[in-house]
Amino acid sequence: MRIAVVGATGMVGEVMLKVLAERNFPVTELIPVASERSVGKEIEYKGKKYTVVGLQTAVDMKADIALFSAGGETSLEWAPKFAAAGTTVIDNSSAWRMDPTKKLIVPEINASELTKEDKIIANPNCSTIQMVLVLAPLHKKYNIKRVIVSTYQSITGTGVKAVQQLENEYAGVQGEMAYKYPIHRNAIPQCDSFEDNGYTKEEMKLVRETKKILSDNTIAVTATAVRVPIVGGHSEAVNVEFSNDFEVAEIQNILHHTDGVVVQDNNDTFTYPMPMYAQGKDDVFVGRIRRDESQPNTLNMWIVADNLRKGAATNTIQIAEYLIAAKLV
């Protein structure tokens, strides 16, 4: 199994390599790929050094699967070239997510939609993945009418530049700014750029991708996305209105038996999800599960996950694992 990692020297690419090794993914040949300025550099994987190659070289090497985390413009230009060479691309950018001809996959929910003909597969947005993994089994049981989500998103979602900004601000050092404002001791109510409707791209990803993954355009979704000075992962306060009533204990039981979800919900022991516990883990954690007493059939939850792992690298690799298990590559 020849695996190309496109964007291998970036923050998500490095986590992809780590997750591939941890999960003993069946790599027979690793092809690390990056932009021209990184070509010739060496990366280490499982104790062996590999030389980074450029995009065209990687296309010509005809990998079985290419794991892309190199930005939307790179994906739009190069994913079709890899696909034309017979490589199955799993893309972590937003480039292909809302393309009606491309599948948007969270393996625990909709991997069964995939076929051999799917040569470019989209990985959802990190904040969407952790929310829909919790929502999917509840939608089946109670039918979701509306979702209100507020996110508290890690600076790692912005990238290395943002991590450096926070470290500089902690140290009192003037440096390059990833954000328009300081992030240390601050919360910035803007993730990504604004769209014409006044919402940010990140907020509209939560709206659009949720409907596509759950295959239901009738679900109403509204979102507010906030950047906070956290490294460990993204947190979300989620309010869900169902068509049918529920018991909180039954909700907890359903989620307890959902693959990839860990319930941390015990007020007596102050047990609830937090980014400091989610960091470095592949699961999605849910707690503070309680009825919304202001209106019928409505639930509040707190959902946390490591955005670089399940929100990006791990979900991408789980798609690849499914393709191999189902003999689709």
Task: Describe what this molecule looks like in 3D.
- There is one protein chain.
- It is built from ten helices and 13 strands.
- It has 329 residues and is α/β, with parallel strands linked by helices.
- The chain folds into two domains: 2-124 and 312-325, Rossmann fold, CATH 3.40.50; 127-307, Dihydrodipicolinate Reductase, domain 2 (2-Layer Sandwich), CATH 3.30.360.
- The strands form three sheets. It has a six-stranded mixed β-sheet with strand order 9-8-10-13-12-11.
- Helix 1 (11-22) crosses helix 10 (309-325).
- The mean pLDDT is 97.
Short structural description:
The protein is of the alpha/beta class and 329 residues long. Helices cover 33% and strands 23% of the residues. A 6-stranded mixed β-sheet has the order 9-8-10-13-12-11.
Give a topology summary:
Elements: E1 2-6, H1 11-22, E2 29-33, E3 42-45, E4 48-51, H2 55-60, E5 65-68, H3 72-84, E6 88-91, H4 107-110, E7 120-122, H5 126-142, E8 144-153, H6 160-171, H7 201-213, E9 220-227, E10 234-242, H8 248-256, E11 261-263, H9 275-278, E12 284-291, E13 298-305, H10 309-325
Parallel strand pairs: 1-2, 1-5, 5-6, 6-7, 8-9, 11-12
Antiparallel strand pairs: 3-4, 8-10, 10-13, 12-13
Helix pairs in contact: 1-10, 5-7, 5-10
